[in-house]
Design brief:
2 helices, about 20% helix, flat
Length: about 80
């Protein structure tokens, strides 16, 4: 495993089990500017989106959105109920 590099952007999903997930992200200022420029051409309010699918039925999906920021985190629990 490599040490964390402050010049590297990351979006990490850490599943605990099929029902619980921790997500965090860290973007460099350069990456954040690039994301805002790219996403801003498509959306009036740029944001991050995480799409989760049910392992039993890939057609069952849920999209979670987050403000586009240089860093953030979110813990999801009880995902089975979110995907039904």
């Amino acid at each position: 495993m490599t040490a964390w590099d402050p010049l590297r952007s990351e979006f990490v999903c850490l599943p605990q089990d099929p029902h619980n997930l921790f997500v965090y992200w860290i973007f460099t200022p350069q990456r954040l500017a690039l994301l805002r420029s790219f996403i801003g051409k498509i959306l009036a309010q740029p944001h991050l989106a995480l799409r989760l699918s049910s392992p039993e039925d890939p057609q069952v999906q849920k999209v979670f959105t987050f403000p586009l920021s240089d860093r953030g985190q979110c813990y999801f629990s009880g995902l089975a109920s979110h995907l039904s």
